[in-house]
Amino acid sequence: MLIYNSQTTPQVLSELTNSIITVLFMLKKISSLKFSGNGPIKILYPGLSFSNEDTGIGSIGRIDHAYINTNTTIPMHPHVNDEILSYFRTGLVEHSDSEGSVKVIGKNRLMLMKAGRRFYHEEKVMGEQEALEALQIFIRPGKKDLRPEVTFLDLTDIHSENKWRLLASPTSQTAFHFSSETWIYDMKLLRNTVMGLPELLRNNLTVILYLFKGSVLIDGHIALAKRDALIITGQQIIIEARDEDAELVLFVTDEQAEIYKGGMYSGRRA
């Protein structure tokens, strides 16, 4: 609702209207240059593209893009009130945790760690045989101090070609389910192919389109390359892969839903 009185000038009213339209219908590119970190793990805080008030957008707290080509061990360490989806495309990692799980994860097996009140894990990266390239996606939980839980998902197909695949959601519709109103999709868009966004379950959701690999053109004029992202609200888009295949990950969040912003890594860092 616009609130104004008889002293509000037409110019001010126009600016207020335009600002609301911008929020309701928005395409904002996040360049790969927005990632921080000098080592093998690059970190994106998507909220910093708007302001310094919140490093996340809704329940999407942080996105890590890792590339590790050596054998290395990340020793046992804690997470508190983070829900972390490990999305691997190449390489293997042996995961062990305080819940008693010991599993090898990779492009055929993904993992969701719901840290809750406290959770410890260790990762042994087997990067010499095949370099590890993966995302660690830090999602904010719906509530504080939930019960820790780890879930694994074995993929029948490594890629979902030219079709959005729903990997995680807030419901039992998927093996991976978040405690917050969050959805994650992926797709491999083959070259010379055009696609739109998946049909979302309701209106007023915020979408972050992330390019894991390749390049695409959005609506014929917005170019996205590897590690670029696009924030989308209130509209459909046309995604075109031209000269090469593109691997896409889609994050969807309800910014009005309840979340806890105090997670160790997913939380507000303003």
Task: Based on the coordinates given, report the CATH architecture.
Answer: Sandwich
| H/E series | HEEEEEEEEEEEEEEEEEEEEE
Helix content: under 10%
In CATH terms, the superfamily is Jelly Rolls
Low-confidence spans:
1-6, 12-23
Q: Average pLDDT across residues? A: 90
- Rounded to an integer, what's the Rg over CA atoms? 19 Å
What is the CATH top level name? Answer: Mainly Beta
- In total, the number of strands is 21
Number of domains: 1
Query: Main sheet: which strands, in order across?
Result: 1-19-16-21-14-12-13
Strand content: over 45%
Q: Note the main sheet.
A: 7 strands, mixed
The CA-CA distance between the termini, in Å, is 28 Å
Which class do the helix and strand fractions yield? mainly beta
Net shape: globular
Q: Helix count, per DSSP?
A: 1
What name does CATH use for the topology? Jelly Rolls
What can you see in these coordinates?
The protein has 270 residues and is mainly β. The protein has a single domain, classed as Sandwich (Jelly Rolls). The protein is 6% helix and 45% strand. The radius of gyration is 19 Å and the shape is globular. The two termini are 28 Å apart.
